[in-house]
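Good morning C.,

I know you're traveling, so I'll keep this short. The sequence:
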Amino acid sequence: MNKKILRLGLMAVSLIVLCGVYFATLNKPDENEQVEAPVSGFFLVDALGRELASFELKNSDEFVFMRTSEKWNMEGHSDFRLSDMNVSAAAAAVMSLYGQDTVSGGDLAAFGLLEPKSIATLNFSDGYSSTIYVGNATVDGKFYYAMAEGDDTVYTISKTAGDKFFNGYNEFLSKGLPQVTLTELEELVFRIKGNEYSFINGMPYGVEYIGWFREIYIDALTNGSRRLDNEYAYSSIYNGVNDIRLTGVVMDAVDIESYGFNESCNMLKVYDGENTLHFYVGNDAGNGLRYIMLEGEDYIYTAKTGYFAKLDGAEPSAVFDRRLTDVIPKQAQTVSLTGPGYEKNIKPQENDIDKKAYATVFELTWDSIIEPWSISGKAPIWTMDIDGLVASGDINAKQLKNSDGNYEKQDDGSISYSAKYELYDYNELFYAVSRDGKEPQTVMAKDRFDKIMEAVK
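The tokens, ready to paste straight into the viewer:
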């Protein structure tokens, strides 16, 4: 009895070391020492003091795991998002198998061991290997029948340990995705309802009223640069991405379009300067799951989170800040208005009336995006020129490059801003808005604009 207790204690020590991510090498046999056969009795594997080199598992799937640099790799699937912890746990379960009882009588087919349901092989660095066969569950479902290679005895093993023999790809999948600091994003790219937009944080040094600018134009809206409405984007587009957890994987999918992945499926990329999360959203997978694919990977995953419904419900046009101008100049600015029958230059620093008129002009917002609309041969109804200084401080040339050419760094470190807006007669209700001579891509309600211009007069 004392010997049995001693053997149990030694085996527990070996298991603890395994789960600590590396395998024990204490008491490793000398090169000249003869390797013993598997221990007889209730312990099915003689793993004490041995370093595990590889772990093979064959059930309805077939896995070969190789141990290199204290990390597991799956043979044939080097890019699989493998959970090192789950592979170690499965290997540890095999290494520590303890027979609850021996079974006599009956043939192997009755125990499911003539054609085993699962086979696990442990290969150790000293050349010793051990293969375990697992068959049917017992009638009460509390145990499995098992055998060790080279031993005709049929043992019962615990259900907890036996279940590890039936792990599949989903059980070995690492469920977590890269975590991104959403308050420090440098890049945001998304596609919603077939509309794709890309934004970069053009001025990341605290100049909040400059902030996010559109960088790449893949959809039809190829003119101008628009600010991101980051409050809307955060609440409706990217808040919640860190809660996404994978639940399963589809191996060797042939037709990804049948899972909903095409050129118009929803997509999101967030980058915080260190970590990137970039994925595509496919069809409903049932049971509250969605299919997703990660950029650069061939696997199709299932994931469960309420985040995807949020992305489905987002409105592409709502992601833009609807202010007519990208910024509100802060210093020594002038605004020149030219319209039917008059011209007005506003210098808000001179008196309260001009300050109020200036502030009123900057209440102008556009109403909606339109397809690029040709202004060839058309004369503008209104023109608004803005010129002024907007910021000072450590803003470099790379940041200015992101500003669509409306900013220029001065010798004193300040930033000059200029823009020209022209309004054209679009229809009975709206003006088309052009910026810096480019084709209009937004419209503004006539009645609202006319009221503001009346106040400016």
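Safe travels,
E.
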